[in-house]
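Sharing a chain and its predicted structure for anyone who wants a worked example. Both blocks are below, sequence first, tokens second.
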Amino acid sequence: MDKPLYPEYGEGGDFIGARRMRRAFRWCVGVVFLFSALLWFGEHFLRYDHAERLYLAALTKAPEAGRNFLRQAVLHDRKTNEFPSAKYIEALAEREESDLMLPTYDDAYTIDSDNSALAIRYGCRLFHEGQVVSARLRFREAAELAPRNQLPVYLEAAVIPWLDAENEDLEPSMALISRGNGMFGAVSFPRPLWSPVLPQSGYWYNNLRREVVQDCSAPIYRFANLVFNRADVDITEGNLDLWDDRLEALRFMGVRIAEGALDRSGDGPVELSAGGIQQLSLGLTLIGRALDQEKRIREKSGASADSDMDRLAVRVQEQFAEIQAFEAKRQEVIRAEREKYRFPIRISLKTLAFISCVYVVVYLVCKVLRVSSVAHNIGHARSGRFALGLWGLCALGLLTLFSLVQRMSTGAMPAESAWSVFWWFLVSGASLFGLVYPRLVLPRVADVQEASDSPGNAVAESATIRGLYRAAYLSLSRRYLGIMFGVTLSAICIWAVGYRIFVSVYPWEVELLAVGLRDEEFELVRQVLAILAP
């Protein structure tokens, strides 16, 4: 007599159809993953030519790593173009090693000598290397190229005392500063080389911007130290001639520099200029030190106190303290920002690893107990499909919600611990359901045995049915976990593509996403200038 079949546990089922269903699901997950991977690959390796691709790669890396990409971009551009672009060379100069920076700027300026911002950067580097005459010439050229920008005028004035190390005459510098103070325009610092396809609100761009401002402010700080130290000595000795006019010119220079921290040149709303809070700090330093020396002159000469100047000096000190407090917390906020943007990536990878580990355990149990392919014929119950679909929607929804919370906050991830607990509660619940739900849908051994009308040894039949039940149970759990892994991977891929569409970068490009405190910097600069206004 033929051996009885138990379709409840997969015997006699549609083996080919079940295998096709499994393969179809795997193909769907593979298509979603490959589409996401190809989208990323095409954007990074097919959208731009080789030099531009290397240039973009350099912008999204630390200077030490980025300079190697830019060196290759410069070489490729020179090989393929009759007239190479100065953009790649100038970007390399911003990141080059200190001993190679000057010749790189020289190469860039040879190609693009009509670039005022490049002339300023080149001049600052020349001054840093002790080539004062050439630095002054570059600043003069920059002033001619951008006649409404006072920065190159102030920079030229700042380097004049070092033209003759034995006779650091201040009069030519002060005359040039007075001329700059009377110019119509603003003090505009150069911006770093950047691509319009990358956001300017992130850490990388704003860090480069700050490095540019720091480099271009160095000659003025050095000049200010020279002048105020000279003033301190002369005032102490009672040599007060000329210092009233000099200090007033320096104070007004500081006002013009500070006011340039906000960009009011466009027709649109006021924005933070390239100099930002560092430019404001430079201006406040000049104003504060000039006010201190002017007060000493009044005290030395016996003149009456100037209450307006004294109040201004107090306001400058208070606002300078505000800026220092803001700068002190900058790195802490940026570190928290990095962790915030890593949170969804980190929790996604951990989830895939967790599901994989549980799947491997169940898979090994199946191998040990020799679960045959017959058990794979059983289709998933409606409750299992519903749980998997619900988990996929929850994963995608939570990742999207994480993204919205990230974009609307500054610093650490709000309620990160609560979000993490809730996420792992759902992951654990979905995984545990896959381990227990076969018990809810598979008929009991006793019921199947009772329904069986086949004659034979009842003990042997019961052992056979229990083996089939065990195999069906493990098969359902194993396939549930495999589907859960595929659903999770698909949700992550869909979220990553959607993130790229709406935010313009991928969620793992943390350095482009971590805020550079540009908005907070703008608000502080605006408040400080409003308080200092007469």
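Comments welcome. The longest helix spans residues 458-503.
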